[in-house]
Amino acid sequence: MTATATIIDRPPLGFATKLLYAVGSVASAVKLRSLSTFLMIFYNQVVGLPPATVSFVLMIALTFDAVVDPLIGQISDNFKSRLGRRHPFMYAAAIPFSLAFFLLWNPPVGWSDQALVAYLLTCLLTLRFFDTFFELPHSALAPELAKDYNERTSLISMRMLFAVIGGLGMTVMAYQVFLKENPDGSGGVLAREGYFAYSLTAAILVFTAILVSTRGTQSQIPYLRKAPSRKITLPAMAREVAHTLNNRAFVVATLTGMCIAIAAGSRNGLEIYFGLYFWELKQSQLAILSMITVAGAATGVLLAPLVARRLGKKYGAITLFASALLVGISPVIGRLMGLMPANGTDLLFALLVVETIINTALAAGTGVILVSLVADVIEDAEVKTGRRSEGLLLSADNLFKKIVSGVGVFISGAILTFINFPENAKRGAVDPDIIHNLGMIYIPTVGLLYGLGILCLFAFNIDRAKHEDNLRRLRETAEQAGVVEEAASSTSIAGGIAPLGSKA
Fold first, then answer.
1. Alpha carbon of 415 to those of 56, 326, 367, 437, 483: distances in Å?
2. Among the listed ranges 125-139, 200-214, 349-363, 373-387, which one has the minimum average pLDDT value?
3. How far is CA 363 from CA 297, 355, 468, in A?
4. Half-sphere CA count of 486, side-chain side, radius 13 A
5. Which of 98, 303, 324, 468 could form a Cys-Cys staple with 362, CB 3.0–4.6 A?
6. Residue 301 has pLDDT above 80, yes or no
7. Is 197 helix (H, G, I), strand (E, B) or coil?
8. Global pTM?
9. Neighbours of 48 (CB within 10 A)
10. In what helix (H) or strand (E) does residue 123 lie, and over which residues does it extend?
């Protein structure tokens, strides 16, 4: 099949294929939500490692990601097999991904702190490596499956809807079933025994989602881009990576994504501390908030395509982004100013419910549009470089999600260390000054990071008109060349490939 046929004659993408593709987002969503919500409190309050130590291990894992992700992205862009460029990696991830997730939550009992740190690091590196094996190629499929400006947002919206259902759904199950707090106060997230059933169930869910989505999109392989036939050298690959990433829209999206991911990670890492100790909520109330979060986020995911059509992706994202920031920090500011109802009152919980619904809807909508913006960089980069590099470019998107559970959790751990948050803390028994300091540090930290992300987004320069022009130029080039793959294979990577358009 020629590249021209791939671009022009591709049959419409059916709903069943879209659905099966979207299911795959459950795998990484379960991992991300589990790490951001429970990892710190599990290894700190349950296992007994200092929060600074847990944060340091996460930073090591993040550094590992920063090196590995672009390499896997570049390799998958140029990988040849009868299953195409992406699917072999996705299939290979299923068993090690799910197994590493299970082992992470079941460390040996009686080991020294040094041995536990080594165990945690090994599990995290394995988990992140094979998460990249699946999530990166899976994300790279979206721009090829949906090329239309608005259809792409709709497909990503469906993908993120399943991510919300999977990630937050497992959090609700954790609070309500596996880590449920007993009437006498025993059990809960501070009881080690509940994590076995939780991790086993989540690992099975991850394994199933990966296989279902990979098999469900396998029929699309004939319509996907083929890897170019060319000689690859490491120096030339490095030059190619630098050339591809030298794109204004990509740099803006990268900076925006980094700020958002780190801020969201800080918020998620401290979320359970705020719930248990700042607001002194019961675990049953935390479970209710998690269920409401699912509904709110699902609403935002469904509304995102409508907002993008009306305001455009760029200004739609900015509007939702700024609104989410203001709504998200308002309850903590209210408490610090003495305006919120007392802990334990129905009015306080009702206000938190309203904030949760609105904030998660705005945040989820922002996330959908931002992912769609990143996907629009694919064609822009192809016009300028002559190469199709979904895997390389979207490795940034995959890395951002890991930063949420990496740098974000590191910051949350640093905050807990700085305010001397006690181990084995009991709800309602933590020094009020420590609780006050938690809120005082949280507001400027999250506000600054989110604010920087909003400012960066104003510089994004791909709108609908430019995206459609990029598609037109690529289509004309494919028609003139006849077979893009043959044209690519005639040029060695060591010698470079002429760009399809200017660098302006």
1. 13, 21, 26, 9, 56
2. 373-387
3. 7, 12, 27
4. 10
5. 324
6. yes
7. helix
8. 0.66
9. 11
10. helix 113-145
